[in-house]
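dumping this here so i dont lose it again. seq + smiles for pyridoxal-5'-phosphate
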Amino acid sequence: MDEPPLSEQPTAPYLEAIVAYGFRGPGRFHVPGHKGGAGADPGVVHALGEDALALDIPQDIRGIDVGPSPTPFERAETLAARAYGARRSWFLTNGATQGNHALCLALAPLGAPVVIQRNSHASVVDGLVLSGGAPTFVAPEYDAGLGMAHGVTPDSLTAALERTPGARAAFIVSPTYYGMAADVRGCARVAHAAGVPLVVDQSWGAHFGFHPALPEAALAQGADAMLTSTHKLAGSLTQSAMLHLGAGDLIDEQALVRAVRIVRSTSPSSLLMASLDGARRQLAVHGEQLLHETLAAIAAARAKLRTIDGVELVDDALVGAPGVAAYDPLRIVLDVRDVGCTGMELADALRRSYDVHVELATQATVVLVVGLRESEAALLRVAGDIDELVARLRRPGRSTPPIRQPEAPPELAVTPREAFLGEAVRVPVEDAIGRVSCESIAGYPPGIPAILPGERLTGELLGYLREIVAVGSRLHGASDPSFATIHVLREG
Ligand SMILES: Cc1ncc(COP(=O)(O)O)c(C=O)c1O
């Protein structure tokens, strides 16, 4: 298929094709059964609007995704690839989660060794459960005071690759939940020196590369594949995302085609895909200006937040620290330790007093996610809310630092797939020492899994997890939230 010229970025071929079909009144003798809205529950029609229902169109409609190539759908994916500097891009309707599953199926098949950032999103380990790959983990850099994991460094990636003979791929995350971007260029260099493709989960950075003040996109830094969870910050509908394949030849495109197909519904939502097409157009055509305006609004809010006694901003001052090569200003990260309260307390007070809901709160921090076109007025208002609440919550002294997770990763006894699909038994936590975990559990902070399926539980690790529960922090993934019991692999 010929590539569309760059000047086609102002078009949104898939969005425009479904709009044309939706509103020209075709005989819709196909699914979905609501027939463009006529058969839908009136409450649903009211909530979603007639227009959205008219655009809910299945696959295989001539002139949309069937017919002479390139179809509008093919053109839309090609335009996305062009905008992101990719050899090929796929629209995903089950989030970046689907992309991680596909990447594991393509790059980490049964028994294949792969290097994985320890605090990758849960969907990577789930992807290994599907594919059967055997992970070696590489630890992210960690700021113990803030309880904040950063990126991996090229040096730790090198060491992990050396520990993993025959590694098929390296999977890292950049940026983090807190907006800290890794040295992707350096990581790509060491991965390529080992003959291994670098996959970057850039879920939190779909807008990277669209403004000079933002970090470069991973593909532009030499990554071989990149995921963007476009719905997170770049304006598409929740659950829509993209997978991008880089220019190199370390990843077999056909392997990815097969893998994407197997984790894709045969009825992907036209609304989600149209929103991706539109989000790409907006970013490619107006992204720089929109980001420029948003960054100005953020700067005003930051200036106000800086005046609040006890609140520190975690921002580009961290750039240069291990695991932090760049920073995304669309995250406003507050360090509240000197207020004497926890981030969870401040987040709770924001919700109760002002109906303000934040993205993440930890012991030391509160994270606000800012989207495109966020108004200065909204940002100044939340800064004012925080100012008022900090005055109310202030207590003398610093809040206690997060509990320290054991540093050495547990021994991998069997692959995540064997542990997940094997026979599990629930045992009291005190009887689980030396057993193989079937669960994935992480304390928050640090958000780095303490134990993953297939790893052997130790007394130290179980003690740490119990301590986390005892102080009221969250345990992600534990099947028993009170952590009295845990699923382990049946022995013998
Ligand atoms: C780093 C990372 N990767 C992947 C995902 C999954 O993205 P989605 O929710 O779009 O499936 C998330 C979700 O928070 C994430 O933080």
